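Our preliminary data section would be incomplete without showing what the modeling component actually yields. Below, a chain of 455 amino acids is followed by its predicted structure, encoded as tokens that our downstream tools consume directly.
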Amino acid sequence: MRRLLFFCLVISSIVAAKQNEVSREELKSDFSRALSHGLATNHNENSRDKTRDESEKNKVSPKSIPTYLDYAASVHVNRKSLREFDKISKLDGNSSGFNFHAQKLKEIENQSAKIIAEKIKCNTDQILFTNSATMSNNIAILGVAYKYPGCHLITSKIEHKSVLNVFKYLERSGYGVTYIDVDRYGNLNLKQLKESIKKNTRLVSIQSFNSEIGTRQDVAAIAKIIKESGDENILFHSDIAQAFGKYPTDFSVFDMATFSGYKIGAPKGIAALYIKDRKRITPIFFGSGDEFFPGSKPTALIAAFAKAVEVYKLNEEIIEKNFNVLKEEIEKIPDVYINSEKPSHVFSVSIKGVLLKDLIERVDKFSFSSGCSCLGDGESNVKKAIDPKGEIPSTTLRISFSDKVKEQDLVNFAKSLKVEVEKLRKEKSISDNCEKSEEKQKDLVKSLSDLNLQN
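Predicted structure:
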């Protein structure tokens, strides 16, 4: 009995000791977790404080944001369009599939196409959604070129780079390309166009509205020339990205037309190509889905595009008034060359005796551009076309606005520009005079030195 009691005590002691060890380990573990949590909490709080400090430091004051005058590059995203994008982007599925979710997305795309088709008076199957106007231009031009290998193509010298560079590639590949001249204000030489049409001409691609100087071509007259040639195989394509939704456009004169979403308030990343008859061009991409632009469709962007088409409006009367106000103020600056002939939302001016980078740095209360936003660092083909002899100054500004821009903002811009141009010209004049004085001084010293040597 005593032995049994002894063994029970020993076992109890061992169990108690083990429990104490476990408790200590758990306590140690709990402490470690608590410590880690505390450190993490402090770290997160410090991070939040740091982020808050950095946010406050980097916060841009509304007064320091320049007045936006680059609407030809992109307009503000419309709130209704953005809400439509946000709503549709939360839906599951891929419209390329066949299940319930896929079909719902497909319905949204079809409805969006219907909205746009009604706007431009065409059938829904004549609208091809793409990711950019650049892509639409490539599909249209290459689609014709690959359909008719080695054919003759016609375009103008003031086209957007996404058109012009495709033609240059085709020219290097053995195609015949004619580049039609324009006058001082970018108007197409219609007589030259008529004379340039050949038996194997298969495409005429002329921009309806120029994004650098605002020229609006007579697309009806161009279509008439093509029709009167008697060759039904010639297709007429036009990049109407700047005109679409802003100015009345008759799509019936086009065989293909490129237009974009973000020029009228949709988010960036969505555009379209109107194709009257898809059988007349060849696909240039390969994959699943639409043969001309295969792959999964950006349903949310398509819906946002349709919403922008529904709600976007431009008051041409206000645009014309703004244009004339700006022109009147700009003309007060000596030695300027206005490149925009007729009122539109695009105003181009070349200025003598100053550098572009200096103007951009100094007229910093306004956001404007030097020309097309897709120009990059290259020289403007538009500037070369309207000024082949190089008589116009190279420093060219593009000011583009909407009907929401106030007249006073344009007046303030012009006045600020005038002040800075005068300052820069004065500084240049002083600098040139100093250089001339230094040269004269060097010549005088040299003359005296030569005289001394002779003596």
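The chain has twelve helices and twelve strands. Confidence is low (pLDDT under 50) at residues 5-11, 14-52. Preliminary results of this kind motivate Aim 1 of the renewal.
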